[in-house]
UniProtKB/TrEMBL annotation:
Its EC number is 1.3.5.1. Residues 147-175 form the 4Fe-4S ferredoxin-type domain. One of its GO terms (biological process) is respiratory electron transport chain. It is an enzyme of class 1 (oxidoreductase). InterPro entries: 2Fe-2S_ferredoxin-like_sf, 4Fe4S_Fe-S-bd, 4Fe4S_Fe_S_CS, Beta-grasp_dom_sf, Helical_ferredxn, SDH/FRD_Iron-Sulfur, Succ_DH/fum_Rdtase_Fe-S, Succ_DH/fum_Rdtase_N. The keyword Nucleus does not apply. It comes from the Bacteria. This is succinate dehydrogenase.
């Protein structure tokens, strides 16, 4: 931060559309205590003028909850993928660089299309299927020890940061990434979700599945929720090995 002028400098990588060339624009905004990156972007949106006085189009980005729950405001801040709502200006190196995540297709500026991740969640059936819409009564109880670590996995907000950090997730790879894999473990643990355990395991045994993980462990370091992603992947490696033998011998008893 520039103390004398009391301004904040942001260098933003922009792109007018999916097929446009990226370019950078520099903005200087008035400093206020306790600003986050979202409030800085809102200031630029209010008055879209570059540092050299050129009028430009407002920068576009996604946001929703503003409390690190929805995962919408993911972007690369000072070279690291994270949430813009919890990136406090006073705690960042200056000037601040903002870039879109490159693992996903660019829509415009800092907005990306995360369909790749959502399609992977569909592929592994990352939900608990129930019969009908009527009240089925209370579900089966989980042991407290299992419930505690399952709760940690349930904190995933599909922000895409772990996929951005993973070197094995890119435009030349169909690896589904750590977030969908961890959700497989979560829903296979649920007493009702376990009914479809073999389907989920078979889904991640195929192309783009768990064997594409290079164990770089970037994901667990980048996850804003501290989810033990590599622990989930290690557990799933054991489970898919057992499932492979079940498939081979024609047995599928969970």
């Amino acid at each position: 931060m520039e103390e004398q002028a009391k301004t904040v400098t942001l260098i933003i990588t922009r792109q007018d559309g999916p097929d446009s060339e990226p370019y950078k624009e520099t903005f200087k905004i008035p400093y206020r205590p306790n600003m986050n990156v979202i409030s800085a972007l809102m200031e630029i949106q209010r008055n879209p003028v570059t540092a050299d006085g050129k009028k430009t189009t407002p920068v576009v980005w996604e946001m929703n909850c503003l409390e690190e729950v929805c995962g919408a405001c993911s972007m690369v801040i000072n070279g690291k993928p994270r949430q813009a709502c919890t990136a406090i200006i006073d705690k960042l190196d200056h000037p601040i660089t903002l870039e879109p995540m490159r693992t996903f297709p660019i829509v415009r500026d800092l907005i990306v299309d995360r369909s790749r991740m959502f399609d992977s969640l569909k592929k592994v059936k990352a939900w608990i299927p129930i019969d009908g819409t009527h009240n089925l009564g209370p579900g089966p109880r989980m042991p407290e020890s299992k419930r505690q670590w399952a709760y940690e996995l349930s904190k995933c907000m599909t922000c895409g940061v772990c996929l951005e950090a993973c070197p094995n997730v890119n435009s030349k790879s169909n690896f589904i990434g750590p977030a969908p894999l961890s959700q497989v473990r979560l829903f296979n643990t649920h007493p009702t979700g376990a009914m479809h355990k073999s389907e989920r395991l078979n889904a991640i045994m195929g192309e783009g599945g768990i064997t594409n993980c290079g164990n770089s462990q970037n994901c667990v370091q980048a996850c804003p929720k501290g989810i033990p992603l590599t622990t989930s992947i290690a557990a799933l490696n054991r489970e898919v090995t057992v499932q492979m033998f079940r498939n081979f011998f024609g047995s599928d008893y969970s």
